[in-house]
Amino acid sequence: MSATTPYYKIRDFINGEWIENNTLETAPLYNPSTGAVLGEVPLGNEESSRAATAAAAQAYPAWRDTPLPKRMDYIFAMHSAMVERKESLAQAIAIDQAKHIAEARGEVQRVIEIIQMACTIPALIQGETVPSIANNISGRIIKAPMGVFCGVAPFNFPALVFGWFIPFAIGVGNTFVYKPSTESPLFMQGIMELLTSIGLPQGVVNIVHGDREVVEAWYDDENVAGVCLVGSTPTAKAIAQGCGRNGKKTMLLGGAKNFLAVMDDAPMDLLIENVLMSGYGSAGQRCLAVSNIACVPEIHDEFVTRLLAASENVTVGDAMDPDVFMGPVISKAAKERIEKYIQIGLDEGATLLLDGRNPTVSAGNQDGYYVGPTIFTDVTPCMQIAKEEIFGPVLSIMKVGCIDGALRMIKNHPMGNGACIFTQNAYNIEKFINEADVGMVGVNVGICAPHPYMPFGGIKDSLVGNNKVQGKEGINFFTQNKVATVRVVDPKEGQVAAPASTNSDVRSCVAS
Ligand code: NAD
């Protein structure tokens, strides 16, 4: 490493302080664009995990009792500070996750929009009152905070997942402990500096780094009210099990295998442009990246020819180079896993039309973790490459007779995150929206990511449980419906017995 390259010593942030804990083991932090070591990440344990939740628990009562307009001041300040620091935060994502700098800027912009949504909390947190459920008695639903929430992030969206969890959780009055991925922790270091700069009270947001040991410590931690995750399906299921044993609330978004259906009237230029963005953007490491393409025969050959030509022109290289289209994948292990799937596809009998293994990159990047655009044709739904999440820039093209064939494939797949269709036929559009067995549907878009004002999440194995992020659902998850049954007594009359009819009303209303 050159003398000018900073060495990033990632630290936990607990109770308003950066923690220097030299007793913890560390993992190296790599630059995926070059393979060089960038720094080190502490591997937290039960002790560091519990220190963070204890700090959050201590901060909770005062934060919960902070008047809502004051709490919202912090959310507005967070929004303004993010707008000011947009570029440095995007750089942080581009450095360790090696998301292409243009996409990193897009991710930060999306988080700014999510925080706008969090600014609607005062409108959405309002409870309900049912007056006169009996004489002088009303029923009230109060959307109350719950205490300490903990969040676990995947490597591929370090900023977005922060946005999905923290502004909503703390805006409604909870405190938070966040565990970034060990592969992309830099963004949250920048966010903690930002939260400190706006004067967020200590302990309201805490960061603890590490892997599963940190999370597993929360399952029996009495300070923890709930855990949320964005990650792979096996991780979501493991957390559901762990949290289930003590009844902790969970919001667990899992893995994906997204289909794109191409009909005979697909607008071809738009389709190609969107498949490139969706399939190769972030090097295919998006939960809404297209992976399986179901194409009707009338347009199959033209589509494949056009897609191949466009894919051959995709430039691969350093995530910081604005002139390349696609950066590296996250790690050496990820590169090897994707290359293994390419070999599996060949062994299964699919046609490898474009082989992304060992793409040409610039001098200085040869040790980076690159896989270029890869296209298989003649794929069938029962092949491993069509069934399993590859999480890389690999497209599997299958032939289907009509829309029903595409819908059947989507229904039969155990994952159900997103699915898109390219067509101009109104009947097919409505049919696809109604029948595609996924949580998020796109029409003539390659990435069907809902706007922050709407809920985001899949179904089937892509979501464990049924809580989704963003929108009203995102706010509801971080609150509990507390119900109050309230009788008022006229102080002038004191405990005067109510008329007989009222007593029976009260009996029936409290009976259950
Ligand atoms: P991962 O599941 O390996 O790790 C996610 C997080 O969970 C990390 O912070 C990790 O430290 C932690 N973790 C790993 N194993 C654990 C365990 N057994 N118990 C508790 N915590 C554990 O996922 P990843 O490789 O970081 O991210 C890619 C995955 O995330 C893909 O499957 C992708 O589809 C998914 N993802 C889903 C969405 C969505 O919206 N559904 C969005 C982004 C990413």
TrEMBL record:
Transmembrane segments: none annotated. Residues 18-482 form the Aldehyde dehydrogenase domain. Its EC number is 1.2.1.27. PROSITE patterns: ALDEHYDE_DEHYDR_CYS. It comes from the Bacteria. GO terms for biological process: L-valine catabolic process; thymine catabolic process. Pfam families: Aldedh. One of its GO terms (molecular function) is methylmalonate-semialdehyde dehydrogenase (acylating, NAD) activity. Keywords: NAD, Oxidoreductase. PANTHER family: MALONATE-SEMIALDEHYDE DEHYDROGENASE. This is methylmalonate-semialdehyde dehydrogenase (CoA acylating).
